[in-house]
Every structure is written in structure tokens, then in C-alpha cells.
Amino acid sequence: MGDQIQFIVEKLNQEPFRKNYNLISFDSLESLQLLQLLSDVLGEIDPKHAVDIREELPEQTAKRMLNLLGILKYKPPGTVSDLSAFRQGLVTGSKAVIHPVLHWLLQRSNELRTRAYLARFLVKLEVPAEFLQDDTVADFNKQYEELMEAFKNLHKEHEQLKISGLSTAEIRRDISAMEEEKDQLAKRVERLKKRVETVQNHQRMLEIARQLHSEKEREESLAQQKQEQKSQLFQAEQRQQRAQVQLKEMQHVVADSKPESLMKKLEEEINFNSYLVTEKIPSEMESKKTSVYYLEKVIAEPAMTQADLTALQSELDEVNAQINQLMEKRMITYEPTDSKFSMYRQQLSLISRKKEAKAEELQAAKEELSSLERQREQRSSQAHELEGSEVLTEDEFRQYVNKLRSKNAFHKKKRLEIAEIAAEFGILQRTEELLRQRHEAIQHQLQAIEEKKGVSGYSYTQEELERVSAVKSEMDEVKGQTLDNMSEMVKKLNAMVAEKKASLAPVIKELRQLRQNCQELIQEHDEKKIQYDSCVAGLETNSSALEQEVKGLLEECAQEESNYHYINCMKRNLEMQLQRAKEELKAYMSPEPQERHRTARDQYTRIILEQENLGKKLREKQKVVRESHGSNMKQMKMWQDFQQLMECKRDCFLKQQNQAAIGQIIQEGGKDRLVL
Predict the structure, then answer these.
(1) CA end-to-end span of the chain, whole Å?
(2) How many whole angstroms separate alpha carbon 137 and alpha carbon 143?
(3) What does DSSP assign to residue 55?
(4) Are 56 and 91 in contact (CB under 8 A)?
(5) How far apart are the C-alpha atoms of 72 and 46, rounded to whole Å?
(6) Residues 6 or more apart from 387 whose CB is under 8 A from it?
(7) Distance CA 516, CA 522 (A)
């Protein structure tokens, strides 16, 4: 348990939490703080759960955390009773529950972050089976499942691409090698252009060469089209043969049958198909739907432990026992009137089962018949392909068997030769592997020697030059083949060239000397370039090593400087604290009473005494209030009764005045009427 808490504290002190806990402070956290800490860790895994738990009810917090832990497939230890205790502990913030959860989450945070991200898109919504009867809802559900599968495939491809990524150094090296090859090929093309420009009618010859190349490409495409058309023709012939065979069979069936038999067969087929459509297939579909519904319901529920399975098994045993009891009661209360109905029910169930069995047998026989017909068609098509459309006679079949025997002997002979070649191939492959290993060891030794001598990369450069020379030789061979194709045209032009050779002989001689000089200069340039490349590579490696060393020293210097500033600040704080302690000690040890009163100890002692005196006075006041509380409440009640009495007298007085005024007004009205 101590190692577990130590691991949790270390992880919480790192990024991105940075809680600055120690073992004591973490162990002293209250339940609400532990729940908030668990919510923060879950929010780091899934941003939707970055919630302040003070703003939601405890039941909502527990439900939210349990849902996410179920998605992350956290399995709490123990049985079913322990699961209820786990839920209760999660609601109350128990350390015995939250500490293992934190340890499990922090131990595999990256994996759980990926799982939480995928759960947002891959947790399937449950649609009841009765809603899936609607075509629109079923289409949307199917589209939703297809999109989910597409997301799975895309995520897998993304992960594979992340794993199998090429390094940038290898890509740069390949690009530089390709650029060098491009430059060399461009130079060769320029040299060849210069050589060709000296020949008369070189433009026309190049145009003819282009036309020849295009015609060759066209010939290849036509040959490919011809091959495709042959394969299509062969497939069409096979389809025609199968159609002819089917036509003959149908004609034979029609010729041998009567209308009554055909009608009877059609009626039987209609009855069978109607039985399948109305009774068999709907019942099978209903059973499949119910099984799928229960399976989806089981999948949607959280993972069940062995304790859950045992509880369900016990419930199942109880239900079976109740069913057996009900059956026994029914057998006891069995009446003769029900026997007839039970007999009819048994006969009906037997007939229905026999009907289903016969329907299944008929369907299996039809499937077997169709498979046998397909096999027969395949065998007949193979026979047509091998020996034509006619049936073999006895002599022809005997000749065919003799031919097969001779082919079998030839095949065995060739198989022996193949086995010998395979054995020799295995020996050669092993030899090649040994030579490759020896070559790799020699290459490593050579690289070590080159690094020791300061010429690393020389062997690689030499291999590149050899590869370039090999490419050059291949291109020269291709050009030689092209020139062979053009030699017939060149022969016709040789007669015209021979006439001018005599006049061009001194120029050609001078040109040969210049070519020799040019070749020497090219070789010297290549050697210098190789030396330059090796020198540049050595300098780059040295400079990169120096840059890394300087970078490391700068980082070390910055780290030491920050340590220096931190230590200096800590030193100043300690000096200030020491100064305050010295002043406090000096004031406390001083013989003067004024200096003693200035000490923090005396000040805090005085404040404590004042607070104690104040508390004593307040307690005395509280005691007086408690003692006089009953009499004061009684007096307040009497005063309230007196106030109600006076208000009642005031209301009575006001009513009396109003009645007197109304009577006076009535008397005055009566007098006025008498006067009138």
C-alpha cells in the first residue's frame, strides 16, 4: 500500500497535474478533495470530465465516474457485495476505494486516453428492436454501423503509419543520392547530345528513333489487347457451351414431361415456397431477432464477474424449481376434459415438427442438387476444354490413360529434379546468408576503421560510384541495342560519310586528342569531387558533434545558473529568518522591559490573554442571557398580548365613530325630506 501511495504522489507531482504533494499531505486529504482529485485525473483522460464536483450532486458525480470507469474497463476487486461497497465508497470518497482507482488510472494513462477517445465514437447506441422495424431507422442504424467500421479501419491505418514512419535522415540521404544521379545523367545526356550533333541528319535520326520507340510501345499495347480479347473470347465460348448444355437439358425435360406433371411440380414448388415465406422464414427471423436483441443487451451491460454468474445461476435454479412445482400442481389438477385438447395439441406439434423437418430436408436436397449440378457443369466445361465437346470412346480413353501414365512418369522425374534443385537452392541460400553475415561484419569493421582514420563514408561513396557505373553500363547496353536497331539505317549513310572521312581525318585526329584530354580532366574532376565529398562529410560530422557538445554545455550552464539563483534566493530567505530570530532572541534576553514588550512572544502572549478575557466576559454575558431568557420571553409575550389588546380597542373605537357618523348623515337626510 505504501508503494502504491508513493507511485500516486510521484505521478501527481509531475506534468500535467503538478500538485506538489508529499505522503503526509496526500494522506491527510479529505473525502471531497479526494473525489475532486479523481475527477481531475479523469478529466485529463477525457476532457468532458474536467468538472468541479461542488457544482453537481453527489449522485451525478458517482454516476459520471462509474460510467467512465466502465468504458475504461476498470474491474474493482471482490464479489457482488464488494461491488456495492465500491459504489458506496466512491460516493462517500473512501480512501480504500479511490487510492486503487488512482493507481490504476495513473499507471496506464496513455492507453486509457486513447481508449476514452475511441469510446466517443465506438460506444454503440442501443436502439430497441421495435424501432428497428421502421425502414428509415434501420437504414440510419446500418449507416451508423458502417461509419463506425470505417472509423475503426482509418484509426488502424493511422496507428500503422505512425509506427512504420521513415526517418528524415534516410529520406534526405535518398533525395541527395537521387539528385546526384540526376546530375550525372543530365551530364551524360549533354555529352551524348554533343556527340550526336557532329553526325549529319541527327535530327531526322532522332525523330526516327522516337517513332520506333512509340511503335514498339504501340505494339506492346496491341499485344496486350490481343491477349485480353483472347481471354474474353475463351470466357464467351465457355459461357456459350454452358448455355447449350442447359438448353439441351431443358429441351430433354420438356420433351419427356406432360402439362399435368409440370403443373403438379409447379404447385408443389409454390406450396413449398409459400410455406417457407409464411411460416418457416418469419419464425426463424423472429427467433434470430430476439436472440440478437438479447445478445446486444448482454453486450451493452458491463462485464460480469464469476460472482454475478453464480447469482444468475442461483436465480435460474429457483425459477426452474418454481416451474417444476407448477407442472406438478397442473398434473395433480388434471381433468379428463383437458386430455382431448392435450392429445390434439400433441398431434399438432408432432405434425408441425415433421413438416419443419421435411421442409429442411427438402431444402437441403435442393441445395445438394444445385451443388451437384454446378460440379457437373464444371467437370463438363473442363472436359470440353481438355478434349473438345465429344465423348471419348474406349480406344480413345485407353490412349488418354497411357498418355496420362507417360505424363505421370515425366512429372515424377521433373519432381525429383525440382527436389534436387530445391536442396541445392537451400544450400546456396544458406551460403548466401553466411556470406551476407560475413559481408556485414566486414562492413562494420571497415566503417570502424574509416571512423578511426577519419575518412568515414569512403566505402559508401565507392559503392555509390560502382552503382552509378553499373547504371551507366546498363544504359550503354540499352543504347547499344538501340544503335543496333539503327545500324541498318547507318549502313546506308556510311557511303556518304566515307567520302568525307578523308577531308575530316586531321580534324578527327585533333578531336581525339581533345577527347583524351577531356577524359583525363573528367577523371581528375571525379577524384577531386570524391575527396571533396569525403572531406565535407568529415567536417559535417565533426561540426555536428561540436554543435551537440556546445548545446549540452549551454544547457548545463543554464541549469547551473538557475541553481545558483535558486540557492542565492534560499540563502537570502534563511539570512532574513536568522536575522529575525537573532533580533527576537536579543529582545527576549534584554534586561530592559520595553525591549521585552517588543518581542513577538510577548505580543502573542498579550493577544492570547486579551482573547481569553474577552471569551470569559462573553461566557458570563451568555450565562446572564440564559438565566434571564425565560422571564424575558414571558415579558415579551405579555407585551405582545397587550399590543394586540390595544389594537383591538383602536379598531372598535374606529368602527364606533364610523357608525355614529353614518347615523348623523341619515338623520340630516330625513330632516331635509320633511322640509320639502
Answers:
(1) 113
(2) 10
(3) G
(4) no
(5) 10
(6) 400
(7) 10
In SS3 terms, 92-159 reads as HCCHHHHHHHHHHHHHCHHHHHHHHHHHHHHCCCCCCCCHHHCHHHHHHHHHHHHHHHHHHHHHHHHH
In this structure, are residues 91 and 321 in contact, taking their beta carbons and an 8 Å threshold? no
**Residues 18 and 5: beta-carbon distance below 8 Å:** no
pLDDT along the chain (676 residues), means of 10: 76 78 77 81 80 77 80 69 72 80 82 79 74 78 83 79 63 83 86 76 78 87 89 84 77 66 76 78 83 76 70 83 76 53 65 76 80 76 57 63 81 84 82 83 78 68 70 69 62 66 72 81 84 81 84 88 88 87 77 64 83 91 87 88 91 87 64 49
The sign of the dihedral angle between the CA atoms of 536, 539, 541, 543 is: negative
This model's pTM is above 0.85? no
CB–CB of 447/459 below 8 Å?
yes
Dihedral Cα 135, 139, 144, 147, nearest 10 deg = 170
The H or E element spanning position 162 is helix 135-163
CA pair distance 428, 434, nearest whole angstrom: 10
Q: Which amino acid is at 289?
A: K
The position carrying cell 492507453 is 111
User: Which amino acid appears at position 168 of this protein?
Assistant: T
pLDDT at 676: 44
| DSSP run (H or E) holding 68 | helix 58-71
Nearest-angstrom CA–CA distance, 403 and 387: 13
Cell of 364: 437441403
Q: How far is CA 668 from CA 644, 654, 660, 676, in A?
A: 37, 22, 13, 13
Classify residue 154 as left (phi > 0), alpha (psi -120 to 50) or beta: alpha
Identify whether the C-beta of residue 369 lies closer than 8 Å to the C-beta of residue 285: no
Q: In angstroms, rounded to a whole number, what is the distance separating the alpha carbons of residues 48 and 116?
A: 10
Alpha carbon 44 to chain centroid, angstroms = 19
User: What does the alpha-carbon distance between residue 88 and residue 113 come to, in Å, rounded to a whole number?
Assistant: 26
The type of residue at 464 is E
The grid coordinates listed for 380 are 463438363
**What Cα–Cα distance (Å) separates residue 657 from each residue in 133, 567, 662?**
84, 94, 9
Provide the pLDDT for residue 257.
61
Decide if 480 contacts 472 (C-beta within 8 A).
no
CB 534 within 8 A of CB 457: yes
Distance, in Å, from the CA atom of 408 to the CA atom of 424, rounded to the nearest integer, reads 24
Give the pLDDT confidence score for residue 618 in this predicted structure.
Answer: 92
* Topology of the domain covering 1-123: Actin-binding Protein, T-fimbrin; domain 1 (1.10.418)
Q: Which CA distances in Å does 240 have to 236, 244, 323, 387, 465?
A: 6, 6, 65, 17, 61
Give the C-alpha separation, 56 to 60, whole Å: 6
What does the alpha-carbon distance between residue 145 and residue 156 come to, in Å, rounded to a whole number? 17
Instruction: Find how far residue 355's CA is from the centre of its chain.
Output: 50
Count of H helices and E strands in the chain? Answer: 19, 0
Q: How far is CA 81 from CA 302, 386, 587, in A?
A: 16, 75, 66
DSSP 15: T
